[in-house]
């Protein structure tokens, strides 16, 4: 075989599949055209505002891209361009509100964020007072208690239920599966009403962080169960058989082989469960008491939570109270972010 | 038919020479108990009878190869020998498996103790992903809740890895993940893992089917070394492998119905002068 290359010489690495700048010109021109056309259409039609531009621009750019590809290449390629263009649009539609919520929360919340809100409560201040007065320490502690207690109740229950359904597959599995699915569809306010009528009205137990976490646990258990189940099902049966073939009981196989192999996914299940409940307001209305004072005892006495604090702030509706609510949202967001980061750091590393 | 005639002449002869070149062990030459005896084994999946009336003796200290086309019940059979068959929800079973003259299906038998004595290596290498190489070797000790002093654990890891022919390749990275090894190394790690609980019998279900020739060779060497200290039963689709590693060979076949043993005997005999025409057809490569 003839080669023009000296033996042993290594050619410069290239990426022939990446488009050169010149090859991007048609696509760019197409984008600009679509933008101009969108501007024109918005001018001459009653469509107005950013949303108007967006509604016109997206189908326009998709159609133009399809037509360009159709002119330059086969129908197969054009279809590919069309579908990937739709994907980009869909992804953008999902990303946009998320980014918008985040940006709004940060810009509005930051104005009220100061150190004093973490050290003070609303005992000696009113929601309508300037933000310098009072704080949300009581709500922050209340939410921390709620999350902690809900995790303590829901994680063992949820993961053990998932293990029963995937590993033991014992009697009633189908029925339990049905119940879990039904529970994950329960409106959150119902969970609160249930705990209110079943615990607070009928037993001597009064509203506290504990009863609040009962209501939240009803929402969290199905999330933890279903996510754990999905993870456990992915663990190859080979590993279970290998454990059993080494003379292990089923309990030892599950504890030493299956659960460790699924650890990362189980932590995700817990995180999703916390995410499910961290912002819940409705179920807490009846079962937490709601107080403006700091209550360090999670088992006795009314307590508060950030969602309740935020709800109160918006309910009053005056500029100062709304500012408090935005800051509350920001603090809740940061709290959840911190919790998730901790879970990821102290959780297992991927091997 | 002319071509198959030549195949008949050449293929069995080369296999036969491999098989006869190996000196066959006589039963009971090693002080390892009386081996494993399968008596009238039948196995079902739901209503489907997959295995019919299989009786085989596995003498202590010998290697027995189970050969036969896919779907003839070899794997089903081997899984009845350490009671892994019963993990399939629809499975049913009839017969006896005697380990040192005691039925492992008898009432009151602790099945976890049975599986400690009858180890298993699976078709696909399956090291535990959450454990390091060293932990994988010791996993059986932990799983079966055997108590071994910490001081002896390192020796055990080394001993098992040496016997599985893996020590020299991993001795400097016992803390690495089992999954970081190549397929052949993973399979030898699985063998080492089985050895750590000191089984009397080792069942191998196509242990080399996912491996390259080099790794296969290493595992065959491992089997030869192990055969002096335990009873080995190996399922294989590789006729050369059966000829190379086994003392006895059993040929399984299913004619559309349940799998049965057609012929069993010393490996050299199965490959040189099989008594049954179907065995001859199979080992000469005329079908299957």
Summarize this structure as a short list of keywords or feature phrases:
heterodimer; A: 351 residues; mainly alpha; MetI-like fold; 13 helices; B: 288 residues; alpha/beta; Rossmann fold; 6-stranded mixed sheet; 4-stranded antiparallel sheet; 10 strands; globular
Give your account of this protein's structure.
- Chain A has about 350 residues and is mainly alpha-helical.
- Chain A folds into two domains: about 20-110, no CATH class; about 135-345, Orthogonal Bundle (MetI-like fold), CATH 1.10.3720.10.
- In chain A, α6 crosses α7 and α8 runs antiparallel to α9 (about 250-260).
- Chain A has helices at about 20-45, 50-70, 75-110, 135-170, 175-185, 190-200, 210-235, 235-245, 250-260, 265-280, 285, 305-315, 320-345.
- The longest helix of chain A has about 35 residues, at about 75-110.
- Chain B is an alpha/beta fold and about 290 residues long.
- Chain B has a single domain (about 1-285), classed as Rossmann fold, CATH 3.40.50.300.
- Helices cover about 40% and strands about 20% of the residues of chain B.
- Chain B is built from eleven helices and ten strands.
- Chain B has helices at about 1-20, 75-80, 110-115, 135-145, 150-165, 165-170, 185-195, 215-225, 240-245, 265-270, 275-285; strands at about 35-45, 50-60, 65, 90-100, 100-105, 120, 200-205, 230-235, 250-255, 260-265.
- In chain B, a hairpin with a 2-residue loop joins β1 and β2.
- The longest helix of chain B is centred in the first third of the chain and has 20 residues, at about 1-20.
- Chain B is globular and about 55 Å long.
- The interface of A and B includes residues 241, 242, 244, 247 and 253 of A.
